[in-house]
Amino acid sequence: MRRGPFRAGAFRSPAHGPRTAVVVGRWLGAALLVCFATGLISHLLQDPPGWLTGRLPSRPVDGYRITQGLHVISGLAAIPLAGVKLWAVYPRLFEWPPARSVVHALERLSIAVLVAAVLLELFTGLLNTLQWYPWPFPFRQTHYWLGWTATGALLVHLAVKAPQLAAHWWRSAAPPLAERRALLAATAAAVGAVTLTTAGQSVSWLRAVDLFAPRRPDRGETGLPVNRTAVQAGTTAVPADWHLTVDGPGGYRIDLAGLRALPQVTARLPIACVEGWSASAHWTGVRLRDLLDRAGIPRGSTVRITSLEESGPYRVTEMPAAYADDPLTLLALAVNGRELTPDHGYPARIIAPDRPGVLQTKWVARIEAL
Ligand SMILES: Nc1nc2c(c(=O)[nH]1)N[C@H]1C(S)=C(S)[C@@H](COP(=O)(O)O)O[C@H]1N2
Ligand SMILES: [Mo]
After folding, report:
1. In the chain, what are the domains?
2. What are 140-160's pLDDT values in tens digits?
3. Residue nearest to atom 12 of ligand 1 (CA)
4. The whole model's pTM is what?
5. In what order do the strands lie in the sheet with 243-247?
6. Could you tell me what percentage of the chain is helix, strand and coil, using 3-state DSSP and rounding each to the nearest 5?
7. How far apart are the C-alpha atoms of 97 and 293, rounded to whole Å?
8. Which atom of ligand 1 is nearest to the CA of 226?
9. N or C: the chain end with fewer CB closer than 10 Å?
């Protein structure tokens, strides 16, 4: 009765099997754990729980740029690795009988959860780098909880497979095999190619070979990509009487000429977008702390920043005190020596060190203490 792939000996390549699964699994496991850790950092920075709000660091300036760059690099590398890992073990799908015991059935079920969660996680992450959301659920929460599910299932898998891991961990466990060596070399080449041709979106010295990342951070009028344009945000026509409102004990309103007349500071800071690209620029503007001081807002205050934009997920940001009080946090009026363009947030935008791009609010209209 056992036909096709169910026949004994249906899969002939000797490269299938536990030694290949362990070798590729080590790379994949490492990539997924780096991806999980850096993803958690990103989530906590964007949505800090109360106990963490007062402890988030505003240094190093490039901290988030590095962790988010690693997140996207490790996630992209995991895609070919997951493919090869599944290839190494998929003959087991046709095992006969399908379940030998209740424990065996549960083990197979846990692998189904692991594979589904990892594939969906990698797929949603990849589409997020393209800003393409062809599904009805919210991306960020889904990606976050799938990350926990995948990592939990991975740890269960490692525990269940501990005996096989131990048995196949060392090279001496399996006779050398030309097919496996070729497969592993091809896998390494595939991972290397994917990494080299996309990492330039966050690693500046790899820009020249950045062929496949959705954005080239060094292109565009200011050498800085734009995630949401002024047209998309409906902020192309800034009212002639635009002014910034700073709300506090000594609240005030100030127009663009007034802001330009205040002491200007220039800082080199990155925009590090959660979608994977990052780029540094020289931003010039007024220190946020100076604006808060003028309104009598004490150090240690969390502030809320609201954009002119009428709707959109990044219209309002809350900024913990560590960033609001940092001397490098600016209400920027210019970038790379030129007045901000509408796409980069004219007339004024926030730029703070070590923060996700989504929180670098453009087209600022109002600042208040919470
Ligand atoms: N008001 C507002 N600010 C915003 C956004 C937005 O949609 N609305 N997008 C954010 C995102 S996701 C990023 S990555 C940065 C990009 O800044 P840039 O377009 O100047 O490069 O702006 C941030 N500021
Ligand atoms: Mo972003």
Report:
1. 4-209 (no CATH), 221-369 (3.90.420.10)
2. 999 999 999 999 999 999 999
3. 358
4. 0.95
5. 252-255, 243-247, 364-369, 303-307, 316-319
6. 50, 15, 35
7. 73
8. 19
9. N
